[in-house]
Amino acid sequence: MPWNKSKFTANMLAHVAYQKMGLHIPLARMRRDFELRGVNLAISTLVTVMAKTGDLLAAIDKVHWDQLVAGDWMNADGSGIDVVVKNDGVARGIIELRMNETYQSGAVTEAGCNSHGIRKFEGAESEYPILAEEGRQFVAAMFYCEDKGRKQELVGDALLGWRQEHIAPIAHDFRRWIDAVREVLLPGTPLRKAVNYYHNHWDALMRFLRDPKIPMHNNAAERLFRSLDTGRHNWLFAGSEDSAHNLAVLMGLIATCRLQGIDPQNYLAWAIERRGTWRDRYGLHPRELTPAAYKRALAAAKA
């Protein structure tokens, strides 16, 4: 039982959570589906189910967060949702507010995404085709060399040496081009914005040249956050700061399940059962209830 006197099973909570956060189905649409199946549930009941599910699994999310913060680097994205903030209306912000606290601590060094840069130059080609193509070619050449090094399975100092030998000279010429071109472009034009992106964020965008662990781009995180865009169009906003946190908890666990190659809904049911009223009987620490732990448990059961 997920909590005392609960009318819902762990499987039911997992189903609702996965439908909402994994498939991005709004609760109102979910309620109508239940009604067609002969189950009458109020929206407020489904909201409570989502809140309690997030609360039950928050400790597991905290394990993931601690692991991320303890690492050398973290891939993040600036995707946001609207959040209803008490007494302040609707605020727009990063999906996971803890990121702001971490950045403000001064313990984080920013690394930029060069995929954003190449897209900005592509977007300027209709207005300044020759100059925009020149800028795009600089970034494309850096990507080509990076890809070539990756295909050789270079890591650590070997990858850093490759980048310094093959990419750093391109970056040097690119910087000289940026400084020259920026002076002749009108403010507000697409190409000036593309050039300013590199001018204003140069150190962050070139940080991969000094640290082999840092990728040239943020594509992996962007792919994971693509589902947030679908959710944002379907359920529009989070009703409170707590709801936004629960959203981040559940979406993070579901995304981790997908990376681990396991069924998210089955995992959620497994974890909720062990975090519910039988928590003491199972006696498992949250780090023993992560998607990776579930995957190990499945493998052990098949052995």
* β-strand amount: under 5%
Q: What is the subunit arrangement here?
A: single chain
Give the rounded overall mean pLDDT.
87
Helix content: 55-70%
Q: What is the count of DSSP helices, taking H or I runs of 4+ residues?
A: 14
Residue runs with pLDDT of under 50 for 5 or more positions: 92-97
Question: What count of structural domains?
Answer: 2
Topology:
Elements: H1 10-22, H2 27-36, H3 43-70, E1 80-85, E2 89-94, H4 98-104, H5 114-123, H6 129-151, H7 156-182, H8 190-200, H9 202-205, H10 219-235, E3 237-238, H11 241-260, H12 264-275, H13 279-282, H14 291-302
Parallel strand pairs: 1-3
Antiparallel strand pairs: 1-2
Helix pairs in contact: 1-3, 1-11, 1-12, 3-11, 5-6, 5-8, 6-7, 7-8, 11-12
Quick rundown:
The protein is built from 14 helices and three strands.
